[in-house]
Structures are given as structure tokens and as C-alpha cells.
Amino acid sequence: MLDDQTSVVNFLWGLEADNDPGSDAYWRQSYTYPQQLSQWAFAAAPHHPIVTQYMENLRGYTKDNETAALNSDPLKRTGPAAVTLATKSLLEDRVGFRWASLTGVKDGGRPKLVDDVLILPITAFQ
């Protein structure tokens, strides 16, 4: 989904997983979502709402599940699934974005600009 009305990119992500949304292949590959973001390569404007959402999710998880949080895998709390959830939630709420439309399986892996967030295809870091 390219939004030609947005001229400023305030957040940049790259996909680390891009599977057919209608398939269960993603969980066989140990991903949480068919289209999952990579947390190790991103750029963000200061105080972007995605960062705020991510931090609120993390605080809520640790506050509500303190014992579970201490015994769980930090990657699940802070890694790709966590940043994907924050971004997915924000874009769905803010602009009604359908997360499954991020897939590059059928469009050859084109970048997607959604609101002020640019999401690069899985091939961007090869």
C-alpha cells in the first residue's frame, strides 16, 4: 500500500519474515507472524508513536506478568514479535491497515509506505 500523500518517512523497518498470509509456514519457521519485522535494523524519528506503543506493551507485559516476564525469553518480549505487534497495532488503529498486505510474495517484494512508516522487503538487507 503506497500512500502518495505522505511526504515524510518517520519510521523505517525491514521485514525479516515474509510468508504467504494464508499459509501456516511462518510458525514452522519459528516466526510469530507471517510478516514479521526485524528489530536489529530500523530508524525512527524521536518520540515516534511506534516506540511509545512498544514501550507501553513492554511495561504492561512486565507489570502484569512479573514472574512470567522474569522466566521468559527476552527475545520474545523485546525482539521481532514485540516490535511487529507494536507496529501492527498502531497502523491498524491509526489507518485501518491490513497487516497481511505487507507481503511481497505476490508483488515481487516492493517497499510499502503506510502513513509515515516505510517497510522494506525481506530482500532489502541481502
Automatic annotation (TrEMBL):
Superkingdom in the source lineage: Eukaryota
GO term, biological process aspect, one: protein N-linked glycosylation
InterPro entries: Och1-like (IPR039367)
GO CC term, one of those recorded: mannan polymerase complex
An example Gene Ontology molecular-function term: alpha-1,6-mannosyltransferase activity
Protein name: Uncharacterized protein
Organism from which the protein derives: Fusarium flagelliforme
